[in-house]
Amino acid sequence: MTSFVIFLGLFLLVFCHDEMRQLLDSNCDDYLEERVTSGTNARPGTTPWIAAISNGTNFFCAGTLVHPRFVLTAAHCIKNNQQFLVSLGMYDITCPEEKCPEIKNYDVIKAIHHPHFNDFTNENDIAILKLSVEVVYNEYIRSICIVTGDGLKTSSIVNFSAYGWGATENLYLSPILKTINLSHTPQSCLRFYEESQICAGAERGDTCHGDSGGPLVANITYRGHVFPTLIGVTSYGSKFCNASANYANVTVFRQWIKNTISAYNYDEDKESLLDENCSSTWDKNGSVHEPWKLILTTRFDGSNDFHWFTFATLITNRFVLTIVHNLPTDIKKLLVRASGGVSFTVKSAHKHPQFTDFNTSYANDIALLELDRNVRYSQNLAPICFRPTLQMSENPPTSLTVIPFAARHTLHYENFTVIDRYHCCVTIGLVIYENQICVNESSSGLYAGCVFGANEYTSSGDKFFLHGIVSFRKNDVIILTNITSYADWITETVNFK
Ligand SMILES: *[C@@H]1O[C@H](CO)[C@@H](O)[C@H](O)[C@H]1NC(C)=O
Ligand SMILES: *[C@@H]1O[C@H](CO)[C@@H](O)[C@H](O)[C@H]1NC(C)=O
Ligand SMILES: *[C@@H]1O[C@H](CO)[C@@H](O)[C@H](O)[C@H]1NC(C)=O
Ligand SMILES: *[C@@H]1O[C@H](CO)[C@@H](O)[C@H](O)[C@H]1NC(C)=O
Ligand SMILES: *[C@@H]1O[C@H](CO)[C@@H](O)[C@H](O)[C@H]1NC(C)=O
Ligand SMILES: *[C@@H]1O[C@H](CO)[C@@H](O)[C@H](O)[C@H]1NC(C)=O
Ligand SMILES: *[C@@H]1O[C@H](CO)[C@@H](O)[C@H](O)[C@H]1NC(C)=O
Ligand SMILES: *[C@@H]1O[C@H](CO)[C@@H](O)[C@H](O)[C@H]1NC(C)=O
Ligand SMILES: *[C@@H]1O[C@H](CO)[C@@H](O)[C@H](O)[C@H]1NC(C)=O
Ligand SMILES: *[C@@H]1O[C@H](CO)[C@@H](O)[C@H](O)[C@H]1NC(C)=O
Ligand SMILES: *[C@@H]1O[C@H](CO)[C@@H](O)[C@H](O)[C@H]1NC(C)=O
Ligand SMILES: *[C@@H]1O[C@H](CO)[C@@H](O)[C@H](O)[C@H]1NC(C)=O
């Protein structure tokens, strides 16, 4: 019965397109035929996801490769250490480089522990290490599978295997990777947290010091293949390593793992910003200041007064971004106003060449305006952050933040849910293009040209990044132009002088 339930879950995972994406790394199950053998010990090549963690000289913990760029381990492993080296493809720790060319060492550029890790109770004892470069998978090195969807019921799994180079009965670290079969023994651990910790043990033997951070694995079978799946992370046990031990329950942390990897999965070398001096005055208390926000005013025929008609966003010291529709053809009628009475005339307007409003929703509703002179940055006037190169983030944002135009200063932000293109199209009765984003409506003062963005991690701290600008609204939906998808056009236009 148990295995039937698991089988069914995996069937859905494997055969239903949408569900398949619920593996953290879909390349994890690309197993070689001969791997699926049973053995009584860890054998070279059967555990391509095991990681040995050292400080360069001394080995102290194990970990598990879960993604080409990330290794999962225990938070207590990284607590007192500053420097980490991850070795993959490792079986015998003492094997010299020339005899074991399959062993590859990776520097760790970021160690992220769970924000609620409790040193004393070992609650949330889980951490992620970001490697300096992406790992190339081979026979000896490959990620383990982690089910990030809801398809796997781990509570019914009775048998596990744990792996590590930890202390053996005679209390020395083992040079050879050891494995032990454990069973789920929920009653025999002193646990503080029922759900987030898994208790497992064996008649004889246990995981021990040095095994920390290593994997607790269950073999899950489908289509005749064994599918080793990460269920737990070795956390802590008894002093003498002769009783059941606690493992962090990976299922509980799957969302944190997924989100952390997607937030940190960018290439440092390519972390370029369109304007490195972009501002992000984002206060912890939720108030935001938008030094990039400009007001576009226009002069109507026969009048000398300029009237507000839309918003524009400063993206470099010479260019502002706005929407095309209802932009006057005569740029002499435009005046760009910034706070403090500063204003600019427009030297040239660059409407997107494929802009169209032909009886549909506006396609490519984006324009760049070149100002008459360079902007002098100040606390109240600075460009928004924007990445000219696409990040490797696997998941598009599901929520975007906007600062509603209610008052001019210290404002609070709102988060809006991104609606999928299909539902958006049905709701508004218009074609929705690839480069548009729909978000649900609110009563706040949102006008054409308003910025939607997200707070994102960068090497110099969190910054607010531009994602979309309001194009139009209909039937309680706001349609944004997805600015990210115009990165190339923006970069070209801005750099062509
Ligand atoms: C899982 O499969 C591997 C490889 O066949 C084997 O070494 C390990 O003992 C198995 N673990 C369990 C709990 O069956
Ligand atoms: C662990 O269990 C598996 C499956 O029951 C078995 O094939 C393997 O030999 C066992 N390994 C050890 C080290 O006892
Ligand atoms: C690694 O840790 C050991 C033991 O704590 C220490 O003696 C050694 O100097 C450390 N090595 C480096 C490179 O920090
Ligand atoms: C791990 O957490 C999941 C999700 O909360 C839960 O369903 C499962 O029972 C837990 N596993 C164990 C072995 O306690
Ligand atoms: C768990 O392991 C034990 C001992 O190896 C074995 O007898 C039992 O059949 C296994 N249970 C499952 C569900 O694989
Ligand atoms: C574990 O080992 C210690 C020290 O040898 C001993 O006092 C204790 O009874 C053992 N516990 C179990 C569960 O075997
Ligand atoms: C960014 O600011 C630094 C220091 O204020 C300045 O030297 C540099 O020229 C600025 N860069 C741009 C592109 O404005
Ligand atoms: C939020 O922070 C800003 C600037 O740090 C401050 O002016 C404002 O009073 C704070 N608001 C609240 C509600 O604490
Ligand atoms: C769009 O225009 C075409 C051609 O003029 C027309 O056949 C079609 O009905 C229009 N669609 C909508 C939704 O107005
Ligand atoms: C915006 O476009 C980029 C590039 O095409 C895409 O990666 C991203 O997921 C889109 N954003 C949304 C919210 O759809
Ligand atoms: C809009 O988003 C809010 C916040 O996520 C949600 O509560 C609300 O149900 C959504 N409305 C629609 C129409 O989707
Ligand atoms: C709203 O979005 C901001 C920025 O993207 C994020 O920091 C914050 O946690 C979100 N707040 C909520 C309640 O989701």
UniProtKB/TrEMBL annotation:
Keyword Disulfide bond: yes
Organism: Drosophila rhopaloa
Stated name of the protein: Peptidase S1 domain-containing protein
A Pfam family reported for this protein in Swiss-Prot or TrEMBL: Trypsin
Signal peptide coordinates: 1-16
Sequence similarity: Belongs to the peptidase S1 family. CLIP subfamily.
Location of the Peptidase S1 domain: 36-262, 291-495
Database matches in InterPro entries: Peptidase_S1_PA, Peptidase_S1_PA_chymotrypsin, Peptidase_S1A, Ser/Thr_Proteases_Immune/Dev, Trypsin_dom, TRYPSIN_HIS, TRYPSIN_SER
Keywords: Disulfide bond, Hydrolase, Protease, Serine protease, Signal
Highest taxon above the source species: Eukaryota
CDD domains: Tryp_SPc
